[in-house]
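A reminder before we start the practical. When you read a complex entry, don't treat the lines as separate problems. The point of joint prediction is that each chain is placed relative to the others, so the output describes one connected object in space. Small molecules and nucleic acid strands, if listed, are placed in the same frame. In the example below there are two entries. Take a minute to note the order of the lines before looking further.
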Amino acid sequence: AQSVAQPEDQVNVAEGNPLTVKCTYSVSGNPYLFWYVQYPNRGLQFLLKYITGDNLVKGSYGFEAEFNKSQTSFHLKKPSALVSDSALYFCAVRGYGSGNTGKLIFGQGTTLQVKP
Amino acid sequence: DAGVIQSPRHEVTEMGQEVTLRCKPISGHDYLFWYRQTMMRGLELLIYFNNNVPIDDSGMPEDRFSAKMPNASFSTLKIQPSEPRDSAVYFCASCRGGGYDGYTFGSGTRLTVV
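Here is the predicted structure of the whole assembly.
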């Protein structure tokens, strides 16, 4: 079965400190991985994706994500958090196989709270 | 491109009434998805279409929910009759060629059933 897990419901970090939002995945084929961000009262916005190549992927708003095949993880990172980064973050993996083609499987989301 | 367009942005209706949510995907996108988001259940996939054909509707909660995609540029999600537990934010998303580049989401419709 294909799945995504975000083990933390909420991550708290002080402004200026580095942040990490964790994601692990399970998929039968090559993983196509994504991070989305949702600000209050808005739709989900694409942040970055991993298809193949470098394990460190850079995305929007200074975010990056590290793909680790052996640990089946795709953690979202930022060197210096901003208060405006406070939002709900979703990790997703593209599904494979009958009934899953084209489908992104989302994690349950992690709320990031950045305090001044 | 204007992105994925959903209407209305907000809908308040009385229990028992019919509700229709609308979505216009990005031109050229051949997949369309309907999601529901609540605090309790998070983000749930209700149904998705490929080339206007429903592929998987296993997430549709009950027969009160139905979705159509009469052409490549329009889809509707209908709830009839509506119930208070249907209150949620409903998102439409679209993508091209199987989701390798991810989805583009609309801004959502916030439905309140009183």
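Discuss with your neighbour: Chain A touches chain B at residues 32, 34, 36, 41-46, 49, 51, 90, 92, 94, 99, 101-104, 106, 108-109 (CB under 8 Å). What might explain this?
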